[in-house]
Amino acid sequence: MSLDNHSALIEQLKPLLMEPDFQDIFEQLTVDESNSTRFLLKMELNRISSQCTRIIDLRDKTELPCEEVVIANQRHFLDEPAKESLINALPLYRNKYTLGVYEQVVKAHKLRRLKLRNIEPEEIVSEENPYLVPAVVLGSYFNRCEERMNYSIRIAVTQPGIPEANGVTLDLSVGGARIKLPLKHHLDQDKPIKLKLLELSEEFFVDDLQHGVDYQIVDIQNKDGNAILRLKRLGGGETLDKVISKVIRSFKFRYKVDVNDVIVTATGLGYERQYLPLLTHLPLYISVKDDIPHIAYELLGRGNQPIQHYFQDENEISQLPNFLNNRRLTQILKSDNDIDHCLLFSFTHHAQGKLHFYSASLAELKVTKNLHLFLGFASTKASWRVFKIVAQTIDHSKNYKTSTLPGDDARYSALTEQQLAQFSHTLQLIDLTNENARKDYQGWFNKADVNGLKIFAQAKVKKHSIKKVSMPFSERRNEARFAFKTLVTIQQGDKKATGVTHDISSRGLQLILEESVEFTEPAQVMLSFPRLQAASGKANLTHLPYQLIRSRMNGQTLHLSALIGHTPHDGVEFLNKLIAHNKQKLEQLSDNEGQLKELADGLKNLFMRQLPGVPYFIEKTVKSAQMAYIGIGTTTDEISHLFAQDSDQVLQYNLRPLLDNNVLKQQIIDPIKSMKPSHDMDFFEVFIQLTRQARGSVQIKCVLKSELGGKDNQIQFIQQSKKVGRFMALRVYRGATDKPDMSYIRRELEYIHIHANHRAKQLEEQLWKVIGSGELLDITAEVEMRYPSLLTVDNPK
């Protein structure tokens, strides 16, 4: 989406940016714009009014003498024309040096230089940048409460003391209109006008139509020898509302309805459906009772299963409530995402058939002076994990539902609305563990007595307390899954292994092996159920054919589906009976019948409002593949903001520093092509050096962690980055996507097909091109924790 056609409106709003009543003025001037356009206008205005730290130094870029100009303790070196541009630009922003001022001065300087060389600006051909990537807005679902139709009818406009002007409507809604009049209309913009909708008054006998309806002029723009007026309706009652609504309904199949909001929302929903099945983070929902926060719900998806499974004890009871206990939750919510409270470490210990969990936040380790002991010892354990928490306060003034079509009910059922209203915060639990960094953490170990870690032992949770809801699209099976444990032996050729089921359905199961075995996948295996055989009667539960669909966790977790031929499958029949007879006792892990789909959709909408990272989407091209979009939320995030500095267009980002030197092909596109949608996302890490240059821009130097070599080189890079500016580390996830979930945006596509068939086809083609998705995630704080020497320097004893 572009704001090219709204440059006049942006210029009109600039002088009003710093006014205290700007919000009211903005609402008036954009009353007839679509919600999506208003969102983009706000983003652009926020961008140009943000404080700027870039220095303008023209000493080696102009033929004229330069003088020093100081603004807010920043020294600029400008020639006379640039200084004049600066003086003209500053009052627009209340004499504050903003990004808009910087861009206006630099643009004026470039245009002057081009004219000196007799080069027209239109003739400049910039080198095509394949890393200039547009953004798609995720988590913001625009809903227009009334339809606006591109509808042309004859009109007459009057104002006291001014001759009647004739024209036509360009579009019409119940509350407003856009009309075209001759340039010399002589209307006073500050006074109401009376508008006669001539063709409607001939067909409908309503007093308001016969005598004219009062409208307020919101904006006048001159275009192609005509005056284009945007109007807000002031007069007329319910009868007129009904007439205009009836006209729009009657003619919507003959005239063009404005569908921009629906397209923007459908695009966001379509792309989020590619990203969410791969999502590795676990969304949690916090309720507060008697001032004590606790986890009420978790939202399950295919990609976040490893986190769910990690916290299951020997009785399949989640120990997550005591990992994020009341004390830790209080600190996280109070600290505004302070990394000391939001970075947590964990490991488990097997003893006498029981699984014990140990965990600590960075703040707790610092206070108890157990940093060296915990990180050093815990990182030697196979169960070692590093987690990051991202918390977000829920704004209950926003709708929970994605009501995207005009006339849609903007709310869910009363019960779902009540359930969603009880949550105060969403948390994203993110697993930052990197097996390659394990040895770095082991450098912390000071060989102290490990009994000192007893204070970090979690109390055992005895019963289920967190309610589980599955994302509707995350359920790959055609039937419900139930938590159930029984012994299973698996054989493929001469390879054999023993494991325990994690969950079952009649036609499939998930198996956790005692030891990792490299089975061929996808391929057939034979399963036996020794403990169930005793209760199976005549059914033979040995050497049953199953398909190994995929493995995870280094081959320790297997997903299997029954291979059903022409004869009945004994395993399927037995498990079907087992589930049917014990349905009340078994814990259902998935929502097969859709009774929780509405709640799941609302929970998804809540956490999509603010993304912890920046998703991206890879699409196939004729020759290979390219990065098609990045996903941004409704609030500014540091990562996308970093890559916006070399792009002067709204919602466009220059990812050259990150993706150049063949990184896009070798590290993202090629791996994604070799992956399958059933595979978990993997990742690589990038170290970034941010250097503020003399003229205010930030130089971004990105290096793959794998290219830096050993630990000493990595530490040296971090220290050097901090000396010259700032260090940052990104984790870049990558995964293959499945075919697009068109059913989720079926209603939106049908609506767009009716009113703009070519745009619906364009959106469908876009989504079918997507072959991969991933995410850019800031892991700076965790990376710095890997090197004891860095923390020692930063925090001297």
From TrEMBL:
InterPro entries: PilZ_domain
Zinc-finger is among the record's keywords: no
Coiled coil: 572-606
Keyword annotations of the record: Coiled coil
Superkingdom, natural source: Bacteria
Domain PilZ, chain residue ranges per copy: 143-227, 475-589
Annotated Pfam families: PilZ
The protein's name in its UniProt record: PilZ domain-containing protein
Organism, as annotated: Shewanella phaeophyticola
